[in-house]
Amino acid sequence: MEQAFQDLDNWLKTAQMPNGKKKVLKAALELFSKQGYDGTSTAQIAETSGMSQATIFKYFKSKDDLLLFIIEPIIEHILPVYGKTFAKQIQSNEHDLKELIHFIVHNRYQFLVQNKDAVMILTTQILVNDQIKGMFLKKITSIKAIFLNNVWQALNDTKELRSDLDVTQFLRLMIGQLLFYFLQNQRITPERTAQQIESDLDQIETTVLRAINK
């Protein structure tokens, strides 16, 4: 079985494939995340990678095939690895609700930043590409039990959650807050300093706690 890695850059560095193919993938990853899939041509990918268009089509049947080759690792390997590692970290220590939310907010934001190019591509393609949306939902469903048995259980064990709060409401709140902030930083305010980001994440924690605490 192919080893699962925790970020796409590491996956590309260690994957067994020709260097030319890696250059094409890195160029496509950069351009798709900045310009969008539809706004990127194979000619631009060739120029950025230093490879010819003929070389691109030697490795990939089409631009769609190239997109799937980028998306599949983060869906099939990176998300499950992070899901399992994240759940173990949650279960490893006793926490109160405030400490758990602090860990979740910072850990998940770090995941988004560490895989920012792939996340930017994934979030846009889920909205317009049914095949990628289906792949993503299938994988999320497969790791849902891990979340319920570990993360959600740990949150409930604090005895501090609102009794009428369910897991879907919590996930919608947490994902909405973090993903919106991440996308805002990537597209609208990319000049935020580390200190400002830390302050912003603290505010997100406060917002989440107010919404879920008894």
From TrEMBL:
Keyword vocabulary terms for this entry: DNA-binding
- Pinpoint the HTH tetR-type domain residues: 18-78
The record's listing under InterPro entries reads: Homeodomain-like_sf, HTH-type_Tx_Regulator, HTH_TetR
The residue ranges crossing the membrane are none
Q: Which residues bind DNA?
A: 41-60
UniProt-listed Gene3D superfamilies:
Tetracycline Repressor, domain 2 (1.10.357.10)
Record Pfam families:
TetR_N (PF00440)
Matching entries from SUPFAM superfamilies are given as: Homeodomain-like (SSF46689)
Molecular functions per Gene Ontology: DNA binding
Q: Which PANTHER family match?
A: ACREF/ENVCD OPERON REPRESSOR-RELATED (PTHR43479), ACREF_ENVCD OPERON REPRESSOR-RELATED (PTHR43479:SF11)
Record-given protein name: TetR family transcriptional regulator
- Species source reads Companilactobacillus crustorum
